[in-house]
Automatic annotation (TrEMBL):
InterPro entries: AAA+_ATPase, ABC1_TM_dom, ABC1_TM_sf, ABC_transporter-like_ATP-bd, ABC_transporter-like_CS, P-loop_NTPase, Type_1_exporter. The keyword Transport does not apply. This is ABC transporter ATP-binding protein. The keyword Transferase does not apply. The chain crosses the membrane at residues 31-61, 194-214, 283-305. GO terms for molecular function: ABC-type transporter activity; ATP binding; ATP hydrolysis activity; ATPase-coupled lipid transmembrane transporter activity. It is a multi-pass membrane protein. It comes from Gloeocapsopsis dulcis AAB1 = 1H9. Residues 37-340 form the ABC transmembrane type-1 domain. GO terms for cellular component: plasma membrane. Signal peptide: none annotated. It is found in: Cell membrane. SUPFAM superfamilies: ABC transporter transmembrane region, P-loop containing nucleoside triphosphate hydrolases. Keywords: ATP-binding, Membrane, Nucleotide-binding, Transmembrane, Transmembrane helix.
């Protein structure tokens, strides 16, 4: 079981604006609290030992400058006597202090190492969790979201932006550990001379305020970098996916321009961001060194001159200050770089946000199989609220029957079918399964009883075997049997490695007809209750068509079939034909009856009959 931070710690975090800005990312840290706490504890210990080292250095300098003076003491009796040896000789004390400085330094080095290791572990765990979180987000969000989101931009978020976020986290972790050391330095300075420390803190704070204005520019530029990267990835993905079309249309010049422009925009945005970033470091270094020199002058000319500061203390003060200034440089530089990653952090937060995305509210009822019918009751649907693609659709799809959908391109056939696996939900009306609202069902239990066969079926870049068995745990024999029933046996056997042949990206190594037969074999293994057939629109040769038709008939036996038909010849035997026109059902009934009515179906029939006749004549 995973343990989380106690509620009071979570509430403490939640109230800060930093937390609110980064909440969606930082909240993932709660899933590995032990690692986070260990990283912080090691960082604290490293800082503490840095402090001890410097404390002992002060003792060392005091012993050097004033060997006969009062020996350095911590106030802890046993430590002062046994470890510091306050009752021993000057030389022995010097050796003991040197040994302590060395011990503190080595222990600090070990804790520094552990801090680094643990922050790396936290980073990697955080990034892994964020990737999983994005996966879960993309799985749970409704398909509507993908209609309005560019896949290239999402790819950029999962790859590039996540990588930047990891870098950002590394910088933040570094700053926190350095910040702790800085805190220890300030405490030491405070002990040596509080007046000088107050002056130093004031001056460095002023410096930090000045630098934050510069950092703001970097932060803004980072948003432009993220945006340009997203747009560039989108164009690159589109170019690769559409390479055949680009070459076929000889539009390489247009695409080159688009690609180069997007690439130029990334370059420009990155240069802008880097320019802003580059200013911060030299300005910070120059200003900090000025403060440092000013502090030395004040310390020597005022505090040492009037005797309020011993030479040993001054030396330690300056030593700490010399260590402090580069630490401040690093923190400032890192903060500026961190700002240059703000765009990426914002980008990931945007993907993870749940309040601005459409979600499918899942039901709990388990679907065990269709008993009576799927009913559409006065269903309205539109991808945009102001344009209905389905208008007042009322339809009964009876169990065990074949229902065919016919209509012109764009009439809404695919959309109607997409509402059954709840890719989208109706805007008005409802869909009932055996009299129960579809939304009451656990949607995966419904989807598991469904299969879709179309020429667009997605083929994964893996073997024929894995593509056929996709979503089922079928054994070798069952896969061969499905391939045989799907009339895919012959071409699979002819492939160089049979079932183990890799099908390439999106199945590029398959013909349209072969792809469809793989889809049929896949559907057969799934043994679906409800089968959706989206007939191929592209022309297949008559042998392929016959093979596919034959295997579809085998697949359809005993199932509830919803077929989107483009060729009327394939649906003559359907139990019901539904004619859609501009999202409305204009006719439904048996094929023969509808023809006799001489309505819309008859009209389509005439057109197809005529074109078939012309085709025959020309051949
Ligand atoms: N994802 C989408 N986002 C926005 N509009 C869409 C989307 N898919 C389809 N449409 C629109 O919805 C309408 C119906 O499309 P649909 O794909 O359902 O028609 P169809 O009858 O299946 O057409 P075809 O026979 O050409 O496949 C069309 O006007 C189409 O532009």
């Amino acid at each position: 079981m995973r343990c989380k931070f106690p509620p009071f710690i979570r509430n403490l975090f939640k109230s800060t604006s930093f937390w609110q800005e980064n909440y969606l990312i930082l909240r993932e840290l709660q899933y590995f609290p032990v690692t986070v706490v260990l990283a912080i504890v090691f960082a604290l210990l490293a800082a503490a030992f840095e402090g001890f080292g410097i404390g002992f250095l002060l003792a060392f300098l005091q012993s050097l400058v004033d060997p006969s003076g009062t020996p350095f003491q911590t106030g802890i009796r046993w430590f002062d006597v046994w470890v510091l040896g306050i009752n021993t000789s000057e030389l022995s004390r010097l050796y003991r202090i040197s040994a302590l400085i060395l011990t503190a330094t080595w222990i600090r080095a070990v804790f520094n190492y552990l801090t680094q290791v643990y922050t790396e572990v936290v980073q990697s765990k955080l990034v892994a969790r964020l990737r999983q979180k994005i996966f879960e987000q993309l799985q749970s969000v409704s398909l509507k979201y993908f209609n309005s989101t560019n896949s290239g931009e999402l790819i950029n978020s999962i790859t590039g932006e996540i990588k930047s976020l990891k870098q950002a986290f590394a910088l933040a972790a570094f700053n926190i550990t350095k910040g702790l050391t800085l805190g220890v330095y300030t405490l030491i300075l405070f002990r040596i001379s509080w007046v000088l420390t107050v002056i130093a803190v004031l001056l460095f704070s002023l410096l930090a305020v000045g630098l934050s204005t510069l950092s703001k520019r970097v932060r803004e530029a980072s948003f432009a970098v993220s945006k340009a990267n997203g747009a560039f990835t989108a164009i690159a993905v589109e170019l690769i996916n559409g390479i055949r079309t680009v070459q076929a249309f000889a539009t390489q010049d247009v695409e080159r321009r688009r690609f180069y422009q997007a690439s130029d925009r990334v370059e420009k945005a990155t240069i802008d961001s880097v320019m802003g970033l580059a200013i911060v470091r030299p300005v910070a270094e120059g200003a900090a060194t000025t403060v440092l020199v000013f502090m030395i002058i004040v310390a020597v000319s005022v505090f040492v001159a009037n005797g309020t500061l011993e030479v040993a203390s001054l030396l330690t003060f300056l030593f700490v200050l010399f260590r402090l200034v580069p630490a401040i440089h690093e923190i400032n530089g890192n903060s500026a770089r961190l700002n240059s990653f703000r765009g990426s952090i914002e980008n990931i937060s945007q993907v993870l946000r749940t309040d601005d995305k459409p979600y499918l509210l899942n039901g709990t009822k388990q679907f065990s199989g269709l008993q009576k019918a799927i009913e559409f009751v006065s269903v309205d649907f539109g991808y945009d609220r102001d344009y209905l693609v389905l208008n007042n659709v009322t339809l009964t799809i009876k169990q065990g029957q074949t229902t065919a959908l016919v209509g012109a391109s764009g009439a809404g056939k695919s959309t109607l079918v997409d509402l059954i696996p709840r890719f989208y939900d109706p805007i008005q009306g409802q869909i009932l399964i055996d009299g129960v609202n579809l939304q009451k069902f656990d949607i995966n239990s419904v989807r598991r009883k469904m299969a879709v066969v179309s020429q667009d079926t997605f083929i994964f870049n893996t073997s024929v075997r894995n593509n056929i068995a996709y979503g089922s745990e079928a054994d070798e024999d069952a896969i061969w049997e499905a391939a045989k029933l799907a009339n895919a046996l012959e071409f699979i056997q002819q492939m160089p490695e049979g079932l183990d042949t890799q099908l390439g990206d999106r199945g590029v190594r398959l013909s349209g007809g072969q792809r469809q037969r793989i889809a049929i074999a896949r559907a057969l293994l799934r043994n679906p209750d409800i089968l959706i057939l989206d007939e191929a629109t592209s022309a297949l040769d008559s042998v392929s068509e016959r093979l596919i038709q034959e295997s579809l008939e085998k697949l359809s036996v005993g199932r509830t079939v919803i077929a989107i038909a483009h060729r009327l010849s394939t649906i003559i035997r359907a139990d019901k034909v539904v004619v859609l026109e501009q999202g409305r059902i204009v006719e439904q009934g048996k094929y023969k009856e509808l023809l006799e009515q001489r309505g819309k179906l008859w009209h389509y029939h005439q057109i197809q009959h005529e074109s078939n006749r012309l085709e025959l004549k020309s051949s």
